Amino acid sequence: MAPLVPSSQPWVEKYRPRQVKDVAHQEEVVRVLTNTLETADLPHMLFYGPPGTGKTTTALAIAYQLYGPELYKSRVLELNASDERGINVVRTKIKDFAAVAVGSARKGGYPCPPYKIIILDEADSMTEDAQNALRRTMETYSKVTRFFFICNYISRIIEPLASRCAKFRFKPLSEDVMSNRILHICNEEGLTLDAQALSTLSAISQGDLRRAITYLQSAARLFGSSISSSDLISVSGAIPEDIVKSLLVACKSGEFDVANKEVSNIIADGYPVSQLLSQFLDVIVNADDIPDEHKARICRKLGEADKCLVDGADEYLQLLDMASETIRALFNIPQGLVF
Amino acid sequence: MLWVDKHRPKTLDKVIVHEQVAQNLKKFVAEQDCPHLLFYGPPGSGKKTLIMALIKQMFGAGVEKVKMENKTWKIDTGTRTFDLELAMLSSSHHLEMNPSDAGFQDRYVVQEVIKEMAKSRPIDAKGKRAFKVLVLNEVDKLSREAQHSLRRTMEKYSASCRLILCCNSSSKVTEAVRSRCLNVRVNAPTEDQIVQVLEFIGKKENLQLPFGFAAWIAAQSNRNLRRAILFFETCKVQQYPFSANQVAPPLDWEQYVSEIATEILSEQSPKRLYSVRQKFYELLVNCIPPESILKKLLTELMKKLDSDLKHEVCRWAAHYEHKMRLGSKAIFHLEAFVAKFMSIYKEFLCAAFG
């Protein structure tokens, strides 16, 4: 394999914590798992929480610390949504892997406990059938195999599976923790980031550390080693404040055609509408001159439009509909025609 | 060769419209490396041009030697095996495909092709460019499963391949994929920029442009550069030297839709609805996307409506377009919209004129 150019590795991978104790902000999990490292005793685990909070990192780190590089390959099975995980795979691949018994050969200072680990990443995208098929497998082979389930939404994991695991919620990272981590990376990479840029970065990434690091790397590549907050906004795909404001101003004018023109411009400029809706929501909620009833009506429409977008509806029509409803809410015109 | 292709900028330096974006992309060329990229923007704004220029500058002329192949993959899902065929363009440095063509099986294509690329990694003596570029078009049309399976695959194989994703609306790409890419927004060129491009082409082709002619075309084009250039070429074929008041025909399907709009406005009855149905069928048979028909119809109707009515009509247009996306037969929803419109309009007329 040809050697890589050093910069080609994403920082997200480069700075992924290799040890459980380095995982930021998730104290309970870290405490339980450090304990595990000493006693080599491990329950089935279920990690859930929003993206970018360190779930996969923790699972990989503990597996690595338990087995070390040599045994890792034979003791750990990592399956994620990109692998086929239908009921058939559960019945064959997972079962076969789970059934093999292993000894506790202590090697090179790693605990190497006498069980294997199966990591099911993005488990919420597994079908219900596949999850059901796992129930008995988990119990039968619990002597020799531990399961790690990782998911964003715990509600999509069937109850029987969830009740067999120790559950850990991964919380979104607080601003301090995130700033610390970001500053650490900046030091390593020789970047300068002022306080304002740092707080912008925390704000736009909303507790998702992976997103923050990706933005930081993109900005570093595009704008060199000193990064300002506007650079970060431009790589993050956030929409500039004045665009959102001007849409509201157009709606306040009460003229449908003015709003239509503004909407067409936004679409032609290629701004993502789902992003626009969420930023528009912020502006509406924080506006002082709009009565609460009107706000409620607009927010309801925003919700509907967002759902339609998720279903794949056309961006232009949804945004136009939203703008038209906003006008009607602001001027207290009822929906439907009254003669 | 069409002017659109002939005058497409081949390198990032020659890009006229998106200079800022091109400047940024040039930094990747200098580094000989790039992160995963996601280009998004309306049609005809120049996404593909930028992507091709970037790849070409990164790898040199080698990427122009492309071959088109229909590749067949053997997919083994455990329960059954089947063959999946998909057309793709490839050179020694990059691969380009349209995974959504595979329909609901798109996720196998995405996984297979990326894994295969990771296996056969190009080796360069200098240890540079040790990756291939995979260009995926229309990622917004990928199924949710396929996008999910992209997530980890993108990370796992990041050493051996870079993905360049290209789509119209980034709302339809999942957050997980977006956050793994550097997002590049390609806005539609402004009318002034279109004028600039048209004048540039005019000079290259040795044409005399009467004053205001380019501006007129730009105004017609809806900020779609490709359309503006095609339209420009049509005008040239039709009549040269240009005259300032030359009338070039609008696209014939748009003409057709505006006829439908006039018909609906002049009479609202089941009989008229029936005659409109024929026209919709004709449009659909000619592969005009139903959402374009609906949007164009809405624009045409809007021109002649009272402002109260506009709110109501646009609400229903959005409603039926959404339903159309969820359903599978577009004609029902188009007709439902027309029927709804007729009922609203008739009610309005009765109230206004008794």
UniProtKB/TrEMBL annotation, chain A:
Q: Which SMART domains match?
A: AAA
User: Example GO biological process term?
Assistant: DNA-templated DNA replication
Cross-referenced NCBIfam families? PRK00440.1 (NF001679)
**Where does the record say this protein resides?**
Nucleus
Protein name (database record)? AAA+ ATPase domain-containing protein
Extract the Gene3D superfamilies matched here.
1.10.8.60, 1.20.272.10, P-loop containing nucleotide triphosphate hydrolases
* GO MF annotations in UniProt: ATP binding; ATP hydrolysis activity; DNA binding; DNA clamp loader activity
How does it associate, per the subunit comment? Answer: Heterotetramer of subunits RFC2, RFC3, RFC4 and RFC5 that can form a complex with RFC1.
Q: Which family does it belong to?
A: Belongs to the activator 1 small subunits family.
- The UniProt record lists the AAA+ ATPase domain at 41-173
Recorded GO cellular component terms are:
DNA replication factor C complex; nucleus
Any Pfam family: AAA
Major place of localization? nucleus
**Which SUPFAM superfamilies does this chain map to?**
P-loop containing nucleoside triphosphate hydrolases, post-AAA+ oligomerization domain-like
Task: Write out the function statement from the record.
Answer: May be involved in DNA replication and thus regulate cell proliferation.
Going by the UniProt record, its keywords in alphabetical order are: ATP-binding, DNA replication, Nucleotide-binding, Nucleus
Automatic annotation (TrEMBL), chain B:
InterPro entries recorded? AAA+_ATPase, DNA_pol3_clamp-load_cplx_C, DNA_Rep/Repair_Clamp_Loader, P-loop_NTPase
The family line of this record is: Belongs to the activator 1 small subunits family.
Q: What is this protein called?
A: AAA+ ATPase domain-containing protein
Task: Report the residue ranges that make up the AAA+ ATPase domain in this protein.
Answer: 33-192
Subcellular location as annotated = Nucleus
Q: Which GO terms describe its cellular component?
A: DNA replication factor C complex; nucleus
Keyword list, A-Z: DNA replication, Nucleus
Origin species: Triticum turgidum subsp. durum
Q: How does it assemble?
A: Heterotetramer of subunits RFC2, RFC3, RFC4 and RFC5 that can form a complex with RFC1.
GO BP field:
DNA repair; DNA strand elongation involved in DNA replication
| Role noted for this protein | May be involved in DNA replication and thus regulate cell proliferation.
Which molecular-function annotations from GO does this UniProt entry contain? DNA binding; DNA clamp loader activity
